[in-house]
Amino acid sequence: MGERKKLLEIRNLKQYFNVGKPNEVRAVDNVSFDIYKGEVLGLVGESGCGKSTTGRTIIRLYDATGGEVLYDGVNVHGKKTKKELKQFNRKMQMIFQDPYASLNPRLKIADVIAEGIDIHGLAKSKEDRMNKVYELLETVGLNREHANRYPHEFSGGQRQRIGIARALAVDPEFIIADEPISALDVSIQAQVVNLMKKLQKEKGLTYLFIAHDLSMVKYISDRIGVMYFGKMVELAPAEELYRNPLHPYTQSLLSAIPVPDPISERTRKRKTYNPADHNYEENEPVEFREVTPGHFVLCSEKEFRKYQSQSK
Amino acid sequence: MVVEKVLEVKDLYISFHTFAGEVKAIRGVSFDLRKGETLAIVGESGSGKSVTTKSIMRLLPEHNSEIKSGQILFEGKDLTKLTDKQMQKIRGKDISMIFQDPMTSLNPTMKIGSQIMEPLIKHQKLSKAAARERAIELLKLVGIPKPEIRVDQYPHQFSGGMRQRVVIAIALACNPKVLIADEPTTALDVTIQAQILELMKDLQRKIDTSIIFITHDLGVVANVADRVAVMYGGKIVEIGTADEIFYNPQHPYTWGLISSMPDMETNDEELYSIPGTPPDLLDPPKGDAFAPRNPYVMKIDLEQEPPFFKVSDTHYAATWLLHPDAPKVEPPEAVKRRRNQFVGVKGGK
Amino acid sequence: MINKENVIIKDMFQPAHIDPSKSEKIAKPSLNFWQDAWLRVRKNKGAVTSMIILAIIIIMAFVGPMLTPYDFDHQNTKHNNLPPRIQGLENIHWLPFDGTLTRRNGTEYNAYEARNIDAYYWFGTDSLGRDIFARVWKGTQISLLIAFLAAVIDMIIGVAYGAISGYIGGRVDSVMQRIIEVLVGIPNLIIVVLMILVLKPGIIPIVIALTITGWTSMARVVRAQVLKFKNQEFVLASKTLGASDTSIVFKHMIPNMFGVIIINTMFSIPNAIFFEAFLSFIGLGLQEPFASLGTLVDDGFKSMIAFPYQMIIPSIMIALIMVCFNLVADGLRDALDPKMRD
Predict the structure, then answer these.
(1) Which residues form the ABC transporter domain (chain A) (predicted)?
(2) Residues B106 and B245 in one domain
(3) What is the pLDDT of residues B260-290, one digit of tens each?
(4) Contact of A1 with A32, CB cutoff 8 Å
């Protein structure tokens, strides 16, 4: 694993809201992980577990309360000049969840897609700009004629593809996809996922794919991280996570996903997770430990030894 | 095997009169609901699944919707012919409904208990004290701890999953014969969803009600459904038992739906996806509404709407591919794999 | 179950070809925001009628005074207090345009014949013998001018203030909101009366008096909208692309607020007209010989019993303008409000 290049290192990232007030929320609480160049890292968890906040903090939509995000070894957070910021903006892009809210209803599709091109001055002339827009539209499977239309004329899946085209306009290396398919119909989800996979292969993109639909995440991701109440509880290669989930929360999550298969649905047993079951002693250090190579679990020293013996 | 039919929808046509013109949302839907079964209606947004069930409850906006023709028979009465007063007596008593969003389907200014008691006092003419007893009983039934205390609390004191349990308690208050659940778990997290589905199945066994379950999640369908109706473009395109739909689907749209969801075995192969977008019901295409997205499209699909072809006693599909003159086509890989898997399981027994 | 009406030929089961590029085609014609809104407004008969009436009133406000041979400020005391008389309509007795007045004992007489005047004052004359027709249109012109000016200034200040307050947020927002609360807390009338006393009555002082507190409601509405848009995904997307704050506000936020801003302005125009009329009525309005609808009502009020037409005509004009603006604003709200979209 050592040969693979780390594109992004997230170190002890913290994002608290309402700091110091009684309603303080620790949306992201001391999360560390790496994202390797060219991989898809899936991030799953239930609503409110902080997975979206993690994505938004990485791309600087929120200022981190603590910790660092290193992109190619350079910290993304902290004081930056306008020029440095613009460079990050070109390297890192985001695809949003709600295809209806993520496009400005008053702009034509051409202007939506060209926003990044305009901001970063990537087009030499008006003609060049339109050609780039047409090219992007075709990349995501839409037609040139769509450039002059308004967002409300498109279906959810088409809008999501326009959102992808907008992100691609600045030639990013790394894309954060924040629940890009959860608002779409099943038949359309596959279109978008296929498109994202195709783009990744063609352009060598790296994705952070945030979702709550585990079967899609498993399909698209190389590695998966599971979040629970602001903490990363388990991180492992996708296949490994499904075959051998160690953290009890991951186990309960996996047992809860309904599979489109009536026979296995009739026989499955569901597990419930109760944080009290860990029985941690007071002040017992609970850390993110590597149980087997590449498989990290949030656990105490005791649990660590238990998991290790389980995995042998 | 004669099974009692609780509800029968016959050749229903519903249109909406909108600004842009007449939207033919439901174009000839027929199905029946048997006693004690769960019928799942699946389809993408705009396929007409919610409109169908809202028309049963008469919850469609009156100013712009119109039932063009068809019947909704409940215990021999045609619900489309009833007055609003008569309908009110049925709603909440014989047929009740659970909505998608537990956050908005409870009144935030009323105590949970009063909200459960309301239908009891109205329909079953219980006294206040008796209704309260029953409300506590119902809360216990849907698995809410400490119901004696909870009954006097307000909705904001409940979590999303707990609220959906309360909504279910209200819906079940009068032991309805039919329960319509419109995406009841879509707004919930998977672990909560699993609990609610478990609860609904459990309650169904206890009080023997029939459920119409609307969802777009095939995983949920596989979990709850006895029979499945697949809707597309305002019509049912395939209907059958859950096993028939999941392991031996016949309609190319069902094929698309089933194979566009990766299962744990799908890995590197590209996902099967249905190209294009759903039809515009303002101006439905001639012939089969699915034809423009159908990779197996034939000339006849563009000319004539396919009738239902019988696959088995319980399984019907509306596609010309089942006509004896049609060429034999191969379904997508994922569907074939399912078929074999199913034969394997059944054969092994 | 097979449909027997249609003939099925074997040949029809040949595979058909469908152009895959067609599947993404959008059949509907492309409508932008304004075209879409216009289609909606057009369905609202009240709003359309009101728009036509308003258009006529606005045109007449400029053309009207030129249609009569009399100037709005030309005094002719010999012709004072004449009732309305219109050529052609004077012979239709049940119309109030035959030049007759009613004596205290209830009998009617023709004022023009009695005083031997051979002239036609369409809306009559006032106590100084000025032509009310010319004065009403002149007054409408000035009232509308005051109202439009006040509304536009309200809009500019309100949008800027609200946008800054909402977008920057935090402490700046708190301070700016407290300032608004203080302004709203002081009774409007007191500020206005003080302003007029200091500045002397005139068009500009009245406009300033109207706008000094009038912009607050617009500022609040705009701030609420900015707060809403701040977390919308299209604004976040623009931020991740590196857009500057000004471009986010002007390109993404304000265009999406046009509907709300227009509706708010449309509602503030009739309010300004009414408030101006009120000021004039309590004697703080324009000075002679200039007239606004408010001063005309005030003048007419003095001789309301003897010469009711002097007050009724400008009153009808005020009522008409206010009702029409409100109906148009209502129609626009239905048309522009995104929540009403289906």
Answers:
(1) 8-254
(2) no
(3) 877 766 666 778 888 877 887 877 878 888 8
(4) no
User: Is B221 close to A260, i.e. CB distance below 8 A?
Assistant: yes
> Of the residues B225, B260, B276, which one is the last residue of a structural domain?
B225
Last residue within a domain, chosen from B207, B225, B243: B225
Residue B242 to chain C, least CA–CA distance (Å): 23
- Which residues in chain C are contacts of A97 at CB distance < 8 A? 233
Give the residue extent of every domain in chain C.
Answer: 57-67+132-340
Q: Which chains touch B (3 or more CB pairs under 8 A)?
A: A, C
Question: In degrees to the nearest 10, what's the CA dihedral of B64, B67, B73, B77?
Answer: 80
ipTM above 0.95, yes or no: no
Residue of B nearest to C3 (CA): B307
Q: B77 and B210 share a domain?
A: yes
The percentage of residues in chain C with a pLDDT greater than 70, rounded to a whole number, is: 90
Subunits next to C (3 or more Cβ pairs <8 Å) are A, B
CA angle B109, B110, B113 (to 5 degrees): 155
Query: Closest Cα to residue A57, out of A15, A107, A18?
Result: A15
Sequence letter at residue B190? V
Reported pTM: 0.83
**Among B42, B46, B41, B47, residue whose Cα is nearest residue B7:** B41
Number of domains in chain B: 2
- Could you read off the pLDDT of C39-93 as tens digits, one per residue? 878 888 888 999 999 999 899 888 887 777 777 777 777 777 777 777 777 777 7
Q: C57-67+132-340: which CATH topology?
A: MetI-like fold (1.10.3720)
- Other CB atoms closer than 10 Å to residue C45's CB: what's the count? 10
List, by residue range, all CATH 3.40.50.300 domains of chain A.
6-229
Cβ contacts (< 8 Å) between A115 and chain C: which residues?
A: 238, 241, 243
What are the pLDDT digits (tens) for A10-28?
Answer: 999 999 988 878 888 888 9
Tell me the angle at which helices A156-168 and A186-203 cross, rounded to the nearest 10 degrees: 20
Average pLDDT, chain C: 81
Whether residue B241 sits in one domain with residue B147: no
- Contact call for residues C240 and A95 (beta carbons, < 8 A): no
In this complex, the residue of A148, A152, A170 whose CB is nearest that of residue C241 is A170
Could you report the per-residue pLDDT of A130-152, keeping only the tens digit for each?
Answer: 999 999 999 998 888 888 888 88
**% of residues, chain A, pLDDT over 90:** 42
Whether B148 and B11 map to the same domain: the answer is yes
Query: In the numeric block, which tokens belong to residue B236?
Result: 């049912």
Radius of gyration of chain A (CA): 21
pLDDT at B250: 92
Q: Give Cβ neighbours of residue A89 (< 8 Å, ≥ 6 apart).
A: A119, A120, A170, C240, C241, C242
Residues 6+ apart with CB under 8 A from A171: A90
| Top-tier CATH class for A6-229 | alpha beta
What is the extent of the structural domain holding B111? 5-225
Q: Are residues A163 and C237, on separate chains, in Cβ contact within 8 Å?
A: yes
Q: Minimal Cα–Cα distance from B347 to chain A, Å?
A: 14
**8 Å CB contact between A58 and A5:** no
pLDDT tens digits, one per residue of B77-122: 898 888 888 888 888 889 999 888 877 888 889 999 999 998 888 8
Dihedral angle over CA of C136, C140, C141, C143, nearest 10 = 130
Separation in Å, CA of C28 to nearest CA in chain B: 10
**Do A116 and A125 touch, CB atoms closer than 8 A?**
no
Nearest CA to CA, how far is B309 from chain C (Å)? 7
H-type helices in chain A, by residue range? 51-58, 82-91, 109-119, 126-139, 156-168, 186-203, 214-220, 238-243, 248-256, 262-267, 301-311
Give which of A42, A47, A78, A35 is closest to A60, Cα–Cα. A78
Helices (H), B177-304: 190-207, 218-224, 242-247, 252-259, 299-303
